Amino acid sequence: MTDLDNGEKMLVASTWEGQGDLQEVSAAHLLAKVAEQRKQLDRIEALANGYATAATTGTAQPANSVNVLIGRSLSAFPGGPTEVWATTDMAPAHSYEAIYDPARISRADAETAVRTTLAEYSVQVAQFLTEDPPLTAAERGPEWMARYGCNRECQLVHAGPDGEPGWHSTVPVETKLRDLDPDPDPRVAATNPWLAARVVVDNFRPQAYGRTTKVWLDYGTTTGELTPAQAREALTELRGFAAELEAVVDLADAIAVDDFEGDPEILRLDREAEDRRIQAITEGAK
Fold first, then answer.
1. Which end of the chain is more exposed for a tag (fewer CB within 10 A), N or C?
2. CA distances from 209 to 6, 56, 146 (A)
3. How far apart are CA 84 and CA 16, in angstroms?
4. pTM for the complete prediction?
């Protein structure tokens, strides 16, 4: 698209077919979203293949038997060494997701802990699907770093689906809570975290364009590309906002004590009256 103000080319994208959230994006931003969608398609393909295999061999899982996606955590987290939760991904190949802290528990013991937790809800684990975070460039070695110009922390698979776009990124950290905005499409909201963040380095033709480090802060389908200083400012604001949000929630809890359900019969009569009013207005305008 061409910017009508200055005549320069611009790249725009939308997550909705109606283009209600159309916005200008960088090439790196768009490539990152493409990589995420490829992973989602891989999960959908795995689900379809699993269904096809079960239909052919007659080995369908019992209704209370599920697949669990498990991976090691990038950092320590509070509580126990494992966490498990029901997935909210669209058309997943798994019903639950789990993470474990490799510094506190082995993979085998983590699987046992997850089985025990789900058994309390009469759910059996059919199989564990592995989704460990990608290796860092430092873990891949100096030859990899030299070939793709990676910083030590980059976790993109440049030799695979992430290609060689001249940008580098860590794996996003994200909330379990999905996007809170169901509009324009709740299915899209379910595939995006409420909040996510990653470090992105852009060194495409650095001799000409230089090298920049940004923190990408995602809120649902919206991404802010922040400098480290701006991200630090956002972090400070979030910490202060958390205390204020807690006060708002406490107040809402107190006020909600007086909430009640409406009478279904009165609701029906009110809607019928509203329909008659609208019909009268419509017929009067003819």
1. C
2. 21, 55, 19
3. 31
4. 0.59
Tokens at residue 268, please? 């029906």
Q: What is the pLDDT of residue 102?
A: 86
Interatomic CA distance for residues 228 and 198, integer angstroms: 11
Structure tokens at 41: 């398609």
d(CA 271, CA 253): 30
218-245 confidence digits (pLDDT tens): 998 889 999 999 999 999 999 999 999 9
SS (H, E, C) the chain: CECCCCCCECCEECCCCCCCCCEECCHHHHHHHHHHHHHHHHHHHHHHHHHHHHHHHCCCCCCCEEEEEEEECCCCCCCCCEEEEECCCCCCCCCEEEEECCCCCCHHHHHHHHHHHHHCCCCEEEEEEECCCCCCHHHHCHHHHHHHCCCCCCCCCCCCCCCCCCEEECCCEECCCECCCCCCCHHHHHCCECEEEEEEEECCCHHHHCCEEEEEEEECCEEEEECHHHHHHHHHHHHHHHHHHHHHHHHHHHHHHHCCCCCHHHHHHHHHHHHHHHHHHHHHCC
Cα 248 → chain centroid = 26
Amino acid letter, residue 94: H
Structure tokens at 283: 């017929």
pLDDT, position 197? 95
Pairing of strands 167-169, 12-13: unpaired
